[in-house]
Specification:
The complex is a heterodimer of chains A (about 140) and B (about 70).
Chain A lengths: L8 H32 L5 H28 L2 H27 L12 H22 L2
Helix pairs in contact in A: 1-2, 3-4
Chain B lengths: L1 E2 L1 H7 L4 H8 L3 H8 L7 H11 L3 H4 E2 L1 H5 L1
Antiparallel strand pairs in B: 1-2
Keywords (chain A): Membrane, Transmembrane, Transmembrane helix
Organism (chain B): Saliniradius amylolyticus
Protein name (chain B): Putative HTH-type transcriptional regulator YgzD
Chain lengths: ~140, ~70
């Protein structure tokens, strides 16, 4: 009747979350290396920067694959919650990103818009959407 | 879609967690199905039918069908 411990939803979820944490951490660290390494570690050596970017792209690719596997490890309600959150997050980021990019040309913003702000909005809208949708199904 | 999961579960003295384990879903999913907030997929509905040893239509009831 029940699943074996190694194949249970809980076990699968634990494994996939751990993998997602590891690859996401690796990607973030490699991104920090690309951002700060050239200035503080290797004095803008082009070849080392290219290697760092290649490593970052590889870790990013692995993070995407593992995230997909993480979604597949969820049950159908949990998957629906995450798919909804992704749809909301994508929409909010698109709408926010489009208008945010116009703020400087129309002189409502002095500085150049930073892409990291869009990533922040994307993450925040995803998180809020997950919390709201989860409450709906409590 | 109406369903008799809660009644069938109670008849067997199963908790939501027991049923969740049997169906390989989370307890939250069992609760959402029981309260009618979430309709299961066809594979999950068949799985529930297998777990309870009943036909799928003995567990799930399409409300729209009755009004036709």
């Amino acid at each position: 009747m029940s699943q074996t411990p190694t194949n249970s939803l809980e076990q699968r979820h634990k494994r996939s979350t751990k993998a997602l944490f590891i690859w996401t951490s690796g990607w973030l660290l490699s991104l920090a290396l690309v951002a700060f390494g050239p200035k503080f570690l290797w004095h803008f050596s082009t070849s080392i920067t290219l290697v760092a970017i290649a490593v970052n792209l590889f870790l990013g690719y692995r993070m995407i694959v593992v995230n997909k596997q993480h979604l597949e490890a969820l049950d159908e309600l949990q998957r629906q919650l995450h798919m909804n959150a992704m749809a909301i997050s994508l929409g909010v980021s698109m709408v926010f990103g489009a208008v945010y990019g116009l703020l400087e040309p129309v002189r409502l913003l002095d500085s150049t818009p930073s892409p990291s702000n869009i990533l922040f909005v994307m993450g925040l809208s995803y998180l809020i959407s997950i919390v709201i949708n989860s409450r709906k199904y409590q | 879609m109406k369903n008799r999961l809660k009644v069938l579960r109670a008849e067997r003295n199963w908790t939501q967690s027991d049923l969740a384990k049997a169906l390989d879903v989370s307890r939250q999913t069992v609760n959402a199905i029981e309260t009618g907030k979430f309709d299961p997929s066809l594979p999950l509905a068949f799985k529930a039918a297998r777990v309870f040893g009943l036909a799928i239509e003995q567990i799930f009831d399409d409300e729209h069908q009755q009004s036709d």
